[in-house]
Design a protein that fits this description.
Organism (chains A, B): Pseudahrensia aquimaris
Low-confidence stretches of chain A: none
Protein name (chains A, B): Peptidase
Largest interface: A-B, 41 and 42 residues
CATH class of chain A: Alpha Beta
CATH architecture of chain A: 4-Layer Sandwich
Radius of gyration of chain A: 19 Å
Pfam families (chains A, B): Proteasome
CATH superfamily of chain A: Aminohydrolase, N-terminal nucleophile (Ntn) domain
InterPro entries (chains A, B): Ntn_hydrolases_N (IPR029055), Proteasome_sua/b (IPR001353), UCP009120_prtse (IPR016545)
Largest sheet of chain A: 5 strands, antiparallel
Oligomer: homodimer
Chain lengths: 243, 243
Amino acid sequence: MTYCVGLRLKSGLVFMSDTRTNAGVDNFSKTKKMFTWEVPGERVITIMTAGNLATTQSLISLIEERSKIASDRSATILHEHSMFQVARLVGDTLKEVIRESNSNDGMKGASKFKATVILGGQIKGSDPTLFLIYPEGNFVEVTTENPFFQIGELKYGRPILVRAFDESLDFDEAVKLLLISFDSTLKANLSVGMPFDLQTYEKDTFKVRSEVRIEEDDAAYAEISNSWGEALRSAFKELPSYK
Amino acid sequence: MTYCVGLRLKSGLVFMSDTRTNAGVDNFSKTKKMFTWEVPGERVITIMTAGNLATTQSLISLIEERSKIASDRSATILHEHSMFQVARLVGDTLKEVIRESNSNDGMKGASKFKATVILGGQIKGSDPTLFLIYPEGNFVEVTTENPFFQIGELKYGRPILVRAFDESLDFDEAVKLLLISFDSTLKANLSVGMPFDLQTYEKDTFKVRSEVRIEEDDAAYAEISNSWGEALRSAFKELPSYK
C-alpha cells in the first residue's frame, strides 16, 4: 500500500507521500511516489500515485516521455492551459495504461491494475488546486468543504486531518499536521513506510517552495512523533470521565 | 459496517459496539451487536459481532437456542468448562452458519456471508479473557502484547488505542479511551453509528458490572467528544514545528 496526502492551504499546496512498495511481506522496497514538473515562472505540477506499481510507473513514464517529445499538435502537461485540462490528460493517460494492462488475452485482472492519483499545482492565470483522479480516468477537484485528498491507506491518518485541518494553517503547521497523520498510519500499518517525501508550494510563485525527504533517522520527525504521543496521552488523562 | 472493541484490563473486561447496520446507504437501521449470557456467580460470556447480518443473527440465535434446550450430551456455552471451549463452540457454530449459507446451489457468494466475532468473559476457575473468532471458525486469544481486539471498521479508531491503551487503566479511563476511539471513527465513516453499547466486567465477580446504551443526545458523550477535539487541536498547536 501507500499513503499520500495533498492539502490546499490559502497560502499554497502541501504534498506528502510515503515510499514503501510491496508485493507480499517479503518483497518490499522503496519507490518514489511524488513527481514534479516545473516551468519556473509559469507552472508547477505535482503528481502522487497509489496503486499497482506497474501502472503508476507506466503512467509517469508516459507523461514524462510525452512532455519531452511533444509536437505542436499533441497535448502535454507542460502545454495545457489549465489544471483542469492537465487533470483530463492525466486521467486519460491513466485509463489508457489500465486498459492496455487489461487487454492481455486470457489475463483477466482488472482490479489488479488499478491506481489512484493526486494531482496538484498551479498554472499562470489561475489559482493553485488539487484533483483526485480515479482509475476510470474521471476526477474530482478540491473544494472548500473538502479541502484535502488522501490516497492509499488513508483511514488511520484521517481523524486528525478531519479534526485539525484548516485552510488557514501556515506551511509549518500544515507540515506538522501531515507528519502526525503519517505517524499515526505508520504506527498501525506495515505497508506504509519511511522515508517520506514532502513538498510545499507557495501560491503565485510558480516554483517549488521546498522539497525534502524525511529519512528514518530524522531527529526532528522523531521529536514530533514522540511529543505527539505524549501530548495525546496527557490530553487523554485530562479528559473528563464518562459520567 | 460495524465497529466493536474488546479490551482486557488487569481489573476486568470492557466491551463496546456501535449499532448501525446497512445494506447500501438508503437501507440502514439499528441492531444490537452485543450479547451476554450470565450465570451469576459462575460465568459471564459476552459476544460482539461484525459482518453479514443474516450470518450474525443466525449465529446468536443458534447459540441462544442451544443453550436453552441442551440435553446433557450436547455442549452449550453455558456448560463448557473453559472460555477456550466456548470459543471453539462459537467458532464451530459460526463456521456452520456460513457453510449453510454457501451451500445454496448456484448461489455462490462465499465472502458475502462472512462474519467476525469478539468473545470475552470469565468462567469460574480461570481468568477473564478475550478471543477474536474468524469466519473460518478458528480464533486467537488476547495476549499481553496484543491486549485488545477490534472488528469491523477498525482503522480510524486504532491509532489512539495503539498509543494510549495500557492494561492497568481503570474502568473509567478505559471507557473514556473507547469513547475517543469510537468518536474518531464516527467522525470519518458513515457506516458506524450511534447509539453505542457499552459493558464492563470486573474480574472474579461473575456478573456484569455495568451496561449502558449511549444515545445520540448523551450529554456526557458530547462533552468527551468536544473536549477531545479541543484537546487535540491545542496539543497540535503546542507541538514543535518540523525543523
